[in-house]
UniProtKB/TrEMBL annotation, chain A:
Domain (ABC transporter) ranges: 9-257
Protein family per UniProt: Belongs to the ABC transporter superfamily.
Alphabetized CDD domains for the sequence: ABC_NikE_OppD_transporters
Domain of life: Bacteria
GO cellular component, as recorded: plasma membrane
Matches recorded under Pfam families: ABC_tran, oligo_HPY
Membrane topology: Peripheral membrane protein
Keyword annotations of the record: ATP-binding, Cell membrane, Membrane, Nucleotide-binding, Transport
Molecular functions per Gene Ontology: ATP binding; ATP hydrolysis activity
The protein, known as: ATP-binding cassette domain-containing protein
Localisation per UniProt entry: Cell membrane
InterPro entries (UniProt xref): AAA+_ATPase, ABC_Ni/Peptide_Import, ABC_transporter-like_ATP-bd, ABC_transporter-like_CS, Oligopep_ABC_C, P-loop_NTPase
Organism whose genome encodes this protein: Bacillus aerolatus
Keyword Transport: yes
TrEMBL record, chain B:
Keyword Nucleus: no
Matches recorded under InterPro entries: BPD_transp_1_N, CntB, MetI-like, MetI-like_sf, Opp2B
CDD domains listed in its UniProt record: TM_PBP2 (cd06261)
Protein name, per record: Nickel import system permease protein NikB
Superkingdom of origin organism: Bacteria
Membrane topology qualifier: Multi-pass membrane protein
Family from the record: Belongs to the binding-protein-dependent transport system permease family. OppBC subfamily.
Any GO molecular function: nickel cation transmembrane transporter activity
Assembly mode: The complex is composed of two ATP-binding proteins (NikD and NikE), two transmembrane proteins (NikB and NikC) and a solute-binding protein (NikA).
Segments passing through the bilayer: 12-30, 104-125, 137-158, 164-188, 231-256, 276-302
Record keywords: Cell membrane, Ion transport, Membrane, Nickel, Nickel transport, Transmembrane, Transmembrane helix, Transport
Organism: Bacillus aerolatus
A Gene Ontology cellular-component term: plasma membrane
Subcellular compartments: Cell membrane
Lineage start: Bacteria, Bacillati, Bacillota, Bacilli, Bacillales
Length: 323, 312
């Protein structure tokens, strides 16, 4: 039985204007997030993951702009709804966990102030009620001594604790979508695991749909139901997590997977090629974005309709050699 | 917090000691004989025997360190000696001139904050818009226009032409308007742009992004998140300016015949009134130290990280 998706992104294109011209940072990105499901985003630094995340909240920085495509949350058109509606949806319906917990909080304000101001923005409650609520949710997020925690400043807490505070704030408003932009990148291994367990608990308990961003395939493998691999602003491969790990089809996905496993001599060479040069985001029209770094590249890769094609059920790849 | 203040206060003792030493030595290193200066100020011809007699009377014949200890002993009791010129107590004279200076400083500080705070914040939020352009021009004019010229312009238009304010002197509230406008004008431009830069810097911080992602109203983000954080660099600057203004604004005081510290100091230098110069220098040194302490306290009030460090 097909579930109705909560969030639908369709053919999203984002441009960034820089002093050197316009850069295409997100291209033709489409995906869906369903309730209680985790959708994973992998890709190297600069592949456009954060840009995609911010556009879901309609919070792109001034230089960036959605030039094409649509984002639909339930029946709401995110890109065209009023500023007030959008503001109200942020935090309460679509929540976000920031990439770096150490800089996400205002250093001169206590945890309590952050928590309470968020609750009071979205709920018609008094400060005292908000405080009680905050304490309850900090406890749920496994944070010890929540009353004292409310009085503390961000710099007095560890990154892992701050990350959990963000999760607690998210939980308290029970959003239907949580965007977690590299929630574990800034943390050590123990904290990473705990955060992932908490996210997993969140989707089971509250049926929250999660967009999990990471450049670590291991993190994605633990939690995601479906994965999209991003390269140079494009989704180059999209599949349910088992299919992607068992049968990676795009050359870039294969390199990513191989670089995690044991490598043969030939493979090392290919990995080095990938990590040395950087993706050229100002794509020449009609050429595969991975062209310059691809082992299998040849003249057929200059192709007029290089699209995401379904090679097998639910397994989509953007490469002329597949399918 | 209490500990923090006590710690800062005790660290002031050696600094104050140093200031007194430097004040004393500086003056005794400068060429010229205080005894001769005294006689000149009293319109007595400096004949050799009179000078010698006076040196003994003033204690100038003793070794330098003895003079310093004696002087310091009196300073601690707020006895800064007697002016060579007016023959009045230096401390009393300083107090007499300090009050007008405080008045002028306070009025100017209020003006600086009231004007540069809103314009600075607005020109950051509406970067490149009309208000930003406007503040850029004000800032440019304010830092490039000499204070005496601006003062004269104000006098010419507001006092002489429109007869809104008195031209010179001190007395009513109306007397305070033009001098404080002139004094604050030079600072307003600087602080406006400083605040703008500070807000702009914070505007791109992840904590502002996160505040937006939590759905907070923009007004709340500015008033609760940006303001306090952006004020930090301003506090340092304002503390320094406070010290500057409290030690007297010579030009503004001269233009408006405002009887403040600046006038007292300049006159004492011109008449070589040694005790008065010494007293003024020491007093200004202490003012600066106190202003620094105030900055530290304000900082620790605004930034919990410093408060926390201080209590560890
Ligand atoms: N403010 C900006 N001005 C200009 N270019 C930008 C800006 N922010 C991002 N970009 C460009 O947009 C592209 C995508 O950036 P994005 O932050 O989405 O990458 P990411 O996949 O999240 O990378 P990371 O793993 O480092 O977080 C990058 O090539 C980056 O150079
Ligand atoms: S289209 Fe060509 S260049 Fe692009 S990934 Fe496939 S084989 Fe490599
Ligand atoms: Mg990112």
């Amino acid at each position: 039985m097909e579930q109705q998706p909560i969030l639908t992104v369709n053919k999203l294109n984002i441009d960034v204007s820089t002093p050197h011209g316009v850069t295409q940072v997100v291209r033709d990105v489409s995906f869906k997030i369903e309730a209680g499901k985790v959708f994973g985003f992998v890709g190297e630094s600069g592949s456009g993951k954060t840009m995609t995340c911010m556009s879901l909240l309609n919070l792109l920085p001034g230089e960036a702009k959605v030039v094409k495509g649509s984002i639909k949350f339930r029946n709401k058109d995110i890109l065209n709804c009023s500023a007030k509606d959008m503001r109200k949806a942020r935090g309460s319906e679509i929540a976000m966990i920031m990439q770096n917990p150490m800089t996400a909080f205002n250093p001169v304000r206590t945890i309590g102030r952050h928590f309470i101001e968020t609750l009071k923005t979205h709920l018609p409650i008094t400060k005292q009620q908000a405080r009680t609520m905050a304490i309850a949710y900090l406890e749920k997020a496994d944070l010890p001594n929540p009353e004292n925690l409310l009085k503390q400043y961000p710099f007095q807490l560890s990154g892992g604790m701050l990350q959990r505070v963000m999760i607690a704030i998210t939980m308290s408003l029970n959003p239907s979508i949580l965007i977690a932009d590299e929630p574990t990148t800034a943390l050590d291994a123990t904290n990473q695991l705990q955060i992932l367990q908490q996210l997993n608990w969140l989707r089971k308990e509250y049926d929250t749909g999660i967009l999990l961003v990471s450049h670590d395939l291991g993190v994605i493998a633990q939690l995601a139901d479906e994965v999209a691999v991003m390269y140079g602003g494009y989704i180059v491969e999209k599949a349910p997590v088992f299919k992607l790990f068992n049968r990676p089809m795009h050359p870039y996905t294969r390199v990513l997977l191989e670089s995690r496993l044991g490598l043969t001599r030939r493979k090392i060479k290919s990995v080095q090629r990938v990590s040395v040069s950087s993706p050229n985001l100002i794509n020449k029209e009609n050429t595969c974005p991975f062209f310059e770094r691809c082992e299998d590249a040849d003249h057929t890769c200059v192709n007029d309709n290089l699209e995401l094609k379904e090679c097998e059920k639910d397994h989509l790849v953007r490469c002329v050699k597949s399918g | 917090m209490g500990w923090f203040i006590v710690k800062r206060l005790t660290s002031l003792i050696p600094i104050l000691f140093g200031i007194s030493l430097i004040t004393f030595i500086l003056l005794h290193l400068t060429p010229g004989d205080p005894a001769v200066a005294y006689l000149r100020a009293s319109h007595i011809p400096p004949a050799d025997e009179t000078v010698a007699a006076l040196r003994v009377e003033l204690g100038l014949d003793k070794p330098l360190y003895v003079q310093y200890v004696e002087w310091l002993g009196k300073v601690v009791q707020l006895d800064l000696g007697m002016s060579y010129v007016s023959k009045k107590s230096v401390w009393d004279e300083i107090m007499l001139h300090f009050f007008p200076t405080v008045q002028l400083t306070l009025a100017s500080c209020i003006l600086i904050v009231v004007v540069s705070l809103p314009i600075g914040i607005m020109s950051a939020i509406y970067k490149g818009k009309l208000i930003d352009q406007f503040s850029r021009i004000i800032a440019f004019v304010s830092v490039s226009m000499p204070a005496f010229w601006f003062g004269f312009l104000l006098i010419y238009f507001l006092s002489v032409k429109l007869d809104l304010f008195p031209v010179l002197g001190r007395g009513t509230f109306a007397h305070l308007v033009l001098p404080s406008l002139t004094l604050s004008f030079a600072y307003i431009g600087t602080y406006m742009r400083l605040l703008r830069a500070s807000v702009l810097e914070n505007l791109n911080e992840p904590f502002v992004m996160y505040a937006r992602a939590r759905g907070l109203r923009e007004r709340l983000i500015v008033s609760r998140h940006l303001l306090k954080k952006s004020l930090l660099p301003l506090v340092t600057g304002l503390g320094m300016s406070l010290g500057n203004m409290l030690s007297g604004a010579v030009i503004v005081e001269t233009v408006f015949a405002w009887p403040g510290m600046g006038q007292l100091f300049v006159t004492s230098i011109l008449t070589r009134d040694y005790p008065m110069i010494q007293g003024c220098l020491l007093f200004m040194g202490v003012i600066f130290v106190v202003c620094n302490l105030l900055v530290d306290l304000a900082y620790s009030f605004l930034d919990p990280r410093i408060r926390w460090e201080g209590e560890k």
